[in-house]
Design goal:
By secondary structure, this protein is an alpha/beta fold. The chain contains six helices and seven strands.
Length: 223
């Protein structure tokens, strides 16, 4: 295996800087239902990513049903091969939740809102892409970054933006936490919302066999 480019192999030298960045982002409450916090978090992300990638095209698409916006950055939009780097900047902690500030549990463990899911992932995205951009291969790839504000509540508002970005890209990486050993997660379970309507049929008590029990039919679906 050829050696890693210096920009990548030297990433560990940024540990302290990146830990401080994560702590600052973690201290911004960006609960899914906290518009002001989401706005602050998006502004912080835009500043960091625009500084790291000054040539990127930056968009902040409005989303239906919410004041929050997505953040999209595109590098080399005309490249024939484009990849999607995706993440979210909302967390599950509302503005009144007591868990608000990060703290260092030990030299290698930062505990705080979103430090794993997934502001830590956004720091990884930022640092890894910044290192990759300094390699000789960077010019070969188009990059699309999409960061959304509603993943923790189902991504309903941002779904169209996710689909739009996905259609333009050959493959994508989502910067959710890895396995405990650092392995990349290739699949995750999904969720679905279904409505099932069951209608019975009335029958006379003397001929119950002519009726249909709606509750019994529903029960069959779950047994």
């Amino acid at each position: 295996m050829p050696p890693l480019p210096p920009a990548i192999s030297s990433l560990h030298s940024r540990d302290s800087e990146l830990r401080s960045l994560l702590a600052a982002w973690s201290a911004i409450n960006s609960g899914s239902d906290h518009p002001a916090g989401l706005e602050r978090m998006r502004a912080a992300l835009r500043a960091a990513f625009a500084s790291a990638f000054p040539s990127a095209l930056v968009e902040e698409p409005a989303l239906p049903g919410t004041a929050a916006r997505a953040l999209r950055l595109v590098l080399r939009p005309d490249a024939p091969f484009r990849i999607l780097l995706n993440g979210h900047y909302d967390t599950v902690y509302e503005a009144t939740h007591p868990f608000q500030q990060p703290r260092l549990l030990d030299p290698g463990t930062l505990n705080g809102p979103g430090t794993a899911d997934m502001k830590g992932g956004l720091v990884v995205l930022l640092a890894a892409l910044h290192a990759f951009e300094q390699t000789d291969d960077a010019h070969r790839l188009g990059i699309e970054i999409l960061l959304t504000p509603d993943e923790e509540i189902g991504s309903r508002a941002s779904l169209d933006e996710i689909n739009t970005s996905a259609r333009r890209c050959r493959f994508g990486l989502v910067f959710e936490p890895a396995r405990s050993g650092g392995e990349i997660v290739r699949t995750r379970k999904g969720t679905g919302v279904f409505t099932i309507t069951s209608r019975g049929r009335a029958a006379h008590g003397a001929q119950p066999e002519l009726g249909r029990n709606a509750i019994a039919a529903l029960a069959d679906l779950f047994v």
